[in-house]
Amino acid sequence: MTILVKNNIHWVGQRDWEVQDFHGTEFKMTKGTSYNSYLIREQKTVLIDTVDHKFSHQFVQNLEMEIDLNSIDYIVINHAEEDHSGALTALMAKIPNTPIYCTENAIDSIVGHHHHPEWNFHVVRTGDTLDIGNGKQLIFVESPMLHWPDSMMTYLTGDAVLFSNDAFGQHYCDEHLFNDEVDQHELMEQCLRYYANILTPFSSLVVAKIKEVLSFNLPVDMIATSHGIVWRDNPTQIIHKYLEWASDYQEDRITIFYDSMSNNTRMMADAIAQGIHDVDPSVAVKVFNVSRHDKNEILSNIFRSKGILVGSSTMNNVMMPKIAGMLEEITGLRFKAKKAGAFGSFGWNGGAVDRIHTRLTDAGFDTTLGLKAKWRPDGKAMQVCREHGQQIAKQWALHDLTQVAPIFVNREAEVLVDAPQIQAAANDHPADCQCMICSVCNWIYDPAIGEPNQQVAAGTPWSAVPDDFLCPECHLGKEVFVELINKAV
Ligand code: FEO
Question: Cβ(227) to ligand 1 under 6 A?
């Protein structure tokens, strides 16, 4: 199947709806992908890139149905990774002398993968051109590390199409080829996932390369990527997005991720998250268990965050292995200008939190003090976690919080609780109300009702409620309850 891209340019690639893994199993594809190859038929016929090696036979067969393979004058390989040059062996078996235009680094990679040093390679560098007739030329632009040292882009004059290869692409499969034809939310979500998980380490190169390409003052009518859609509607929107993402990108978002042996570290994560929202209701807080959630989704959230909190139980005096793996990956992705902190539960030794703190610092994060809880956090420990979240929210705030937080008092624990949710609940109660509210889950104890399930009779004041009373919702003790009185009024 071919799809008309523009004038004499056709898409001759391969859709892959069912693929789930890329880079081994490190990148999970949730929306499939495509391997985009393009055929340009001017006075000269040019093939730009091929497809993944597992579709070699199908690719060559489709191409043979479209043209006589011997009519291909030039093959341009923008990138040697096997998802783009993978079908070369099958294709070159049919047309062994066809010139291959690529960077010097690509020869090393292509020969390394295909073991055919005798192929007719032509090395190109930035600014080199290839005349293809009808007044049109290909202009080559090296783009090392976007995504490998061998990567380059190819620009077609006249039609003003930039064949950008991995850059500006996304692992996304749709029967439609153009950006204006697909679900915009899905598209941008996959663009960000691709950038965050694959291109983040090369952000400084992204900015430099985009500025270099813009300095050529070439019109860009379409950006034809090697994965996903072709940008034809406002194609420079993705260039502007890349410039934004490459510049220490962050949103008002905090990502918390953890692994938990006995649910204790998870309890800490929940309380910290609630504490953050107590103080700053506008910040987005996302909580993930690395054992259960999609790793690439977590990394995308880290990419979007101003700060991260990393939790682990201590196991054999070190952190849990999946957290160690995540920290290794985060180190490789070289996130910039983000804050971080560690937390976790321990039994007899809290080594995990210290090790996470060190790893985060080494990875370039601006680290804050860690938080440890011994065994399962009790009510007081949960309150400490919640206060920790409140402190984090204040330290990492991107806007003025002085107008946000009313203050409530838990006289028993002598702690201050800043909680807009509690204020909202208090607004529905009279000024002389004797109710108490659980500062963790916001369940309300009303003396007029009592708590029949715990044999606390109606009419029992809070002071007479037994010390072993547990919140019926979150099962924490009396110490996490605060008066339902808005002290700000
Ligand atoms: Fe799509 Fe770097 O390969």
Answer: yes
| pLDDT band at 437; cut points 50, 70, 90 | confident
Hey, what are 131's tokens? 């005349």
Q: At what angle do helices 295-304 and 184-194 cross, to 10 degrees?
A: 90
- Would you give the distance in Å from CA 444 to the centre of its chain? 38
Q: Name the pTM for this structure.
A: 0.82
Provide the residue count of the chain: 489
Mark whether 114 is an active-site residue: no
Is 297 part of the annotated catalytic residue set? no
Q: Which helix (H) or strand (E) holds 394?
A: helix 379-395
Q: Which residue has the CA at smallest separation from atom 3 of ligand 1?
A: 81
The pLDDT, as a whole number, for residue 433 is: 85
Given 10, 53, 84, 147, the catalytic residue:
147
- Residue 486's pLDDT is 57
Q: How many other C-beta atoms lie within 10 A of the C-beta of residue 217?
A: 6
Tell me if residue 79 is catalytic: yes
463-478 as b/e: b if 16+ CB within 10 A:
eebeeebbbeebebbb
Distance 295 CA to ligand 1 centre (A): 20
The answer to whether 138 touches 162, Cβ cutoff 8 Å, is no
